[in-house]
Amino acid sequence: xxxxxxxxxxxxxxxxxxxxxxxxxxxxxxxxxxxxxxxxxxxxxxxxxxxxxxxxxxxxxxxxxxxxxxxxxxxxxxxxxxxxxxxxxxxxxxxxxxxxxxxxxxxxxxxxxxxxxxxxxxxxxxxxxxxxxxxxxxxxxxxxxxxxxxxxxxxxxxxxxxxxxxxxxxxxxxxxxxxxxxxxxxxxxxxxxxxxxxxxxxxxxxxxxxxxxxxxxxxxxxxxxxxxxxxxxxxxxxxxxxxxxxxxxxx
Length: 251
What we know:
Layout: H1 2-15, H2 17-47, H3 62-65, E1 128-130, E2 133-139, E3 146-149, E4 152-155, E5 161-163, E6 168-176, E7 180-188, E8 191-198, E9 209-210, E10 215-218, E11 232-239, E12 242-244
Antiparallel strand pairs: 1-4, 2-3, 4-11, 5-10, 6-7, 6-9, 7-8, 8-11, 11-12
């Protein structure tokens, strides 16, 4: 009966206050175990180095990194040269070794062309039968068509002396197939005078010097190309090889 009474009391205690005591002990045990487990994990994390190494960067003190500048001695000191002012520096062209030599163009001295004489006279006295015409066509009495005419046809009887219109040098004396006996006088400065339809016998030859009014020959009838024109002298003037109007000189 006594044993039954003890067990009954123990059961009542367990069902009453004892239940809470047991529950408290269990919770305390779990809490203590969890605390130690957390301390173990934290300690292991602090002592374990990261896989990638330490990511922290230490910046050194700038004052300790700056190198020391040595103090120059008297032997190391060199005199300071002051550059000359910009205005006193003479600029010179820079020539590369492979630059070609500059080519200097030499302009020949060109003397103005001057005629031997500025005085002119008519080669014969007579009317102009056919005028100078190189820009417009004129009627050709011999051929009966319209064409240019590079000189003056001055009326003069056969045998009348033909005079040089100015001073010069006889350049040519020849027989032309169309214009007959011809004398060419060079007056200098690129000016020439041509005397055509002369008689076969002339008074000069190539190289002779003639004065203004000097006799060259006489009027003839040797110009086949102008047989349709009355007796005359055919006079031409050329400047630098180009025909010009003789009236420009025969004022």
